[in-house]
Write a structure and sequence with these properties.
The structure is a homodimer.
Chain A: H1 3-13, H2 22-35, E1 44-45, H3 48-55, H4 59-72, E2 75-78, E3 82-85, H5 91-95, H6 123-128, H7 133-136, H8 138-150, H9 155-162, H10 186-199, H11 214-228, E4 237-240, H12 243-254, E5 260-265, H13 269-277, E6 281-288, E7 291-292, H14 296-300, E8 306-309, H15 323-336, E9 339-343, E10 368-373, E11 385-388, H16 394-405, H17 410-421, H18 424-451, E12 457-458, E13 465-469, H19 476-485, E14 491-492, E15 506-510, H20 516-533
Parallel strand pairs in A: 5-6, 5-8, 8-9, 9-10
Antiparallel strand pairs in A: 1-3, 2-3, 4-11, 6-7, 10-11, 12-13, 13-15, 14-15
Chain lengths: ~550, ~550
């Protein structure tokens, strides 16, 4: 395309009625012409004066576009000699395997000659790699799409996607693990929030030092000492974005790919993904009414590097780990130099008795990493969790957290700290415990009314859900699907097990986010799904 | 300790003047007595009636404490027979290596007998593992502390900590990479924030669906298409907590441990840690004035699985990747099925010309993952970033993000979306670009005034810092330390290189967060540090 041809080509395509400024249109068109080689490398572009005149636009616009194209490397400008299309074609460079031809061309001079078309073996492919090419050749665009679909995820990526348990549903009856966020004291929160924004403290808006805001770590240490019997100083506390990040941090600091971690069987599926993606092998350990119950085979195997347990409220089954098991676990870990991650995700909500003490409080060997979250006690979307590191590792945890995650959100942390310090946190927990306790009772009554002892509900002493056992051999996934078809969300218990062979059928029924009066009707709908799916049982 | 002895022991320790309720004190003392074996397994504890009378406290208090201890497994209660200390000692259980003795004892009955003291070989260790033991034996506590210090981080954890580049300083002259957060339009932000809190939408307070809030993804897609020439639909956008999380996600989905990634040399240290901790081998590729410049050796090596580049504004040196290199990189990636991560962290701030188009916009093979952040344009503590996934992988990225990170913060995302939609975002960028441009000029003038051409400042066409080159062979770390002693933060350029051999000395000088009038005086102080540390040069 010669200079005069270029003017015509541009004139046909410039749309003065368009909302897009002429500058941007001209810029894009020239880029397109160069990338598609309609303007070949080495070609001289018209002077800004000439092009402006032929297109009937301001010369300044053309000058600016040329300057931008120089900066971007599309054209080069040699004073007194004019502006030339740069040679940027990649064909010979990366196609070559001989060392001699591997040097990249620079766009620093106007001397690059156009590549003769005959030499450009992969011409059509290169053209397809240019913006706008898809519009000129539908065939090529289709080929590209196919090719990009064929590009594979990695092995760990594939495993992550195929085993992902995450649901698109985020609430409604009977979504387990979701608290009632509509009762959150929004006015108090907003008042504190506005107070901090009014004073506009730059130190709260920038990156966080490792571990989080000192004030929050301080009030949290007080809370955990008093309410959860956790032995800790504020320096041991690391503020995270939740249980997932807490576990991710501990796993990356304390284990290497190929290491083994004991997990409870069943356990929370989300955590399994976090472990696998960091290269850990999980060894599922059975649980009984006293919690984690390693078998002779488990003890005979090489000791794991890590153990992940939910001693205060086994997830999802709901039992409490007995003192005997706690002491056994601590002693085993001490002898074999394992780390124990204690996931204490919702034990604030215990009905009929006080919350139970943490496992961490029994540990004096500095081997327990305690993790918790405000997701259930306040609201999940807050994304604030914490871990308590062993004293000797507190500094390393803080450094690693800053290095890996570049923390921030200090203003929100300040609001949260004051929310706790002013007593709103414990008072909110108290209110919600009463509310959830009531909903739990409504649900348990509905289950008992409908099924008596035939389908017992267990794990209801604490937390936000109960587990309804289904008859042995029944297909809880089918029941959950039938329920979903009726707009009721329950999770099949079998999905929490490491394998189908070990799985017991059941349903996780979350009652916390369901208004009292909706619980019984929703359960009736669920019962319909159960009865339809398991006719043999009915 | 017999029952009557126990009453005396408790009476001596109960403190009625304490702020701690009697319930809690009694609970703790009994736990302590049991764990330390002052009350041995199998011992019968006094009836609640008797103990209450002897201690002169309400019987109901004792009953409640006993109930809690039963729940926690410290004691067992057999109707009509009394309450007994449970056998929870772990010694024989986990010390044993024969399969026959590995069964754990249950605390389900009152029949457990006390272990004879002579049989308990590891008695002192077990005692040290109980709360309160440290106060009775200083020696044991000291031993415990040593032991826990000796517990090692993993190999990847150790590497992470020893190579961590994170600084405890978060601002001040001349901290690079930190924007001026004091100019953030806090009132607008607070207004939008309050609007969403007032309406209290539960769907904004719970977990997020994979990818983030639809509205934010929508306005962001518009912005990226218009301002960064990114080709994307809202569905391709994944909201993250920043560049670190975006890269973490891409790396875990697209690579496996042991895979190689090309990184620029020098590059941002924080990203190196994220890559290493996921098991990647980094191959540092030299950069020149056109950006990434792979050598013959690099091309001859097996192709990497990933490449990580900063084409719009090389970090930290500041050059723009030329079009020739961009096309070369895209073509090489296409031929060898590599993925390219484009880190576009601050290119909104380009002075003297318009922001340059993204590399992603040139890609039609679906091989570029574009990542960006609001950390520099709004404020770092916001912790909102994004990635643009290739169309074919958008769904996988959304799923993986939800599965790995359990996203939330939707209310903040709603505020941000409206902030952008109402035009505050682009107007804030415009204002800050003018402000930073001015500060940059003040700094460049100060450098030129003091050092002329001897120590050139480069990379100042965009971003929030310039790089001042230091004479070859000089020790930039020593200069940075001398500056820090004068309360001036600069980062030594050599720290960004993969090795000391490849490093060029220089200083990263961040001007964005320094008020205009403080720049020249702060630079004088820095110059003093330079001149003192490099006397040969002066």
């Amino acid at each position: 395309m010669r200079a005069s041809v270029l003017s015509d080509w541009l004139a046909q395509r410039l749309d003065r009625g368009s909302a897009q400024p002429v500058y941007r249109q001209l810029h894009k068109l020239l880029q397109q012409a160069i990338l598609s080689r309609e303007l070949p490398a080495g070609a001289r572009v018209p002077s800004s004066r000439l092009l402006a005149a032929e297109l009937g636009i301001a010369r300044n616009t053309v000058t600016q576009v040329y300057e931008q194209l120089v900066l971007e490397g599309y054209v080069t400008s040699a004073t007194g000699r004019g502006t030339f299309v740069a040679d940027t074609s990649p064909d010979e460079i990366v196609g070559a395997t001989e060392i001699g031809s591997m040097q990249t061309r620079t766009n620093g001079g106007a001397s690059g000659a156009a590549l003769p078309a005959g030499k450009v073996a992969t011409n059509s492919e290169s053209a397809a790699a240019a913006p706008g090419a898809a519009s000129t050749s539908g065939m090529e665009a289709a080929t590209q799409t196919q090719r990009s679909t064929a590009r594979a995820l990695s092995a760990r990526g594939t495993r992550l996607i195929t085993s992902a348990g995450v649901s698109k549903r985020q609430g409604g009856a009977f979504m387990p693990g979701v608290p009632d966020v509509s009762r959150f004291p929004a006015r108090v929160w907003t008042r504190l929030h506005n107070k901090y924004w009014r004073s506009l403290r730059p130190d709260l808006l920038t990156y966080a030092p490792g571990g989080g805001l000192a004030l929050l770590r301080h009030v949290l240490a007080d809370y955990l000492r008093t309410s959860r019997s956790v032995r800790c100083s504020p320096e041991q506390i690391i503020i995270t974005t939740g249980i997932h990040q807490s576990i991710d941090l501990a796993v990356r600091l304390l284990s290497d790919p190929g290491d083994t971690i004991w997990t409870e069987d069943p356990c929370y599926w989300g955590v399994r993904s976090v472990l696998h993606v960091s290269g850990l092998n999980t060894r599922p350990i059975a649980v009984d009414s006293e919690g984690l119950n390693p078998s002779a085979g488990d003890f005979a195997a090489p000791p794991p590097r890590l153990m992940l347990v939910t001693p205060s409220h086994q997830y999802p089954l709901g039992m409490v780990m007995s003192l005997a098991r706690r002491r056994m676990l601590l002693e085993y870990a001490r002898q074999h130099q394992c780390w124990i991650i204690e996931d204490d995700y919702d034990s604030e909500f215990r009905y009929g008795s006080r919350p139970l003490a943490s496992l961490q409080g029994l540990d004096t060997a500095g081997q327990v990493i305690y993790v918790g979250s405000f997701g259930k006690t306040l609201f999940p979307g807050l994304r604030v969790g914490y871990l308590v590191a062993p004293e000797a590792l507190a500094e390393s945890f803080a450094t690693a957290s800053a290095e890996l995650y570049r923390e921030g959100q200090l203003l929100q942390q300040a609001v949260l700290a004051e929310f706790i310090a002013e007593g709103h946190f414990t008072s909110h927990i108290r209110k919600m415990r009463a509310l959830y306790g009531q909903r739990r009772q409504v649900l348990l009554d509905a289950v008992a009314r409908r099924y008596g002892d035939a389908l017992p509900a267990m794990g209801g002493d604490a937390g936000l859900h109960v587990v309804m056992q289904l008859p042995e051999g029944s297909d809880d996934r089918a029941v959950a699907e039938a329920a979903l078809a009726r707009n009721i969300v329950v999770r099949p218990l079998s999905g929490y097990y490491s394998s189908r062979e070990r799985a017991n059928p059941g349903l996780l029924i979350g009652y916390a986010c369901v208004p009292d009066e909706e619980i019984a009707p929703a359960f009736d709908t669920l019962a319909e799904a159960i009865d339809t799916t398991l006719p043999a049982f009915v």
